[in-house]
C-alpha cells in the first residue's frame, strides 16, 4: 500500500484542521491505520489508531480533541484536529499496519501560531 498524507499548514491555536491520508492498493479496512507525529528534537509518537474493525484509540494528549476516522469509499483515513495547541505542532505521518508489515507515507507539517 502507498500512503499520501496532506492537509497540514499554519493554523492559529484554538482552531481546527483536518489531515488526510489517501491510500492506494489494498483497502484501508484491511489495516490498522494510524497517525503519528514528530516534533523537532523529539521522538515520533503515536497519536491515534483506527483498527481494521473500526475501533479508534487515542493518545492521552489528544483525547477529546482529535478524531480519527476513515472513508472506505475513497480509501482515505482522516485525522480531525480540534482545539489545536502549540504542543500539537509537528510533522504528522500516517501509517498502515498489517501483521508484521508497516507502511509509511511522507509527513505533512502542522505549524501552530499562538
Provide an overview of this structure:
This protein is an all-beta fold and 114 residues long. It is 0% helix and 56% strand. It has strands at residues 2-6, 9-12, 17-24, 32-38, 45-50, 56-58, 66-71, 76-81, 90-98, 101-104, 108-113. Strands 2, 4, 5, 6, 9, 10 and 11 form a seven-stranded mixed beta sheet that branches.
List descriptors.
114 residues; mainly beta; 7-stranded mixed sheet; 0% helix; globular
- Rounded to the nearest angstrom, the distance between the terminal CA atoms is 37 Å
Report the order of strands and helices: EEEEEEEEEEE
The number of helical segments is: 0
Counting copies of identical and different chains, the oligomeric state is single chain
Major β-sheet profile: 7 strands, mixed
- Percentage beta strand: over 45%
Q: Write down the Rg.
A: 13 Å
Mean pLDDT: 96
Based on helices, strands and strand pairing, what is the structural class? Answer: mainly beta
Kindly state the number of beta strands.
11
Q: What general form does the structure show?
A: globular
Helix percentage range? under 10%
Low-confidence sequence ranges = none
Amino acid at each position: 500500500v502507498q500512503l499520501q498524507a496532506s492537509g497540514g499548514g499554519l493554523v492559529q491555536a484554538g482552531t481546527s484542521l483536518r489531515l488526510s491520508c489517501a491510500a492506494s492498493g489494498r483497502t484501508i479496512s484491511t489495516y490498522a491505520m494510524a497517525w503519528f507525529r514528530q516534533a523537532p528534537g523529539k521522538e515520533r509518537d503515536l497519536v491515534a489508531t483506527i483498527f481494521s474493525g473500526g475501533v479508534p484509540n487515542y493518545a492521552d494528549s489528544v483525547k477529546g480533541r482529535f478524531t480519527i476516522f476513515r472513508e472506505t469509499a475513497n480509501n482515505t483515513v482522516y485525522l480531525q484536529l480540534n482545539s489545536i495547541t502549540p504542543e500539537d505542532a509537528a510533522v504528522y505521518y500516517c501509517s498502515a499496519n498489517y501483521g508484521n508489515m508497516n507502511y509509511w507515507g511522507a509527513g505533512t507539517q502542522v505549524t501552530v501560531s499562538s
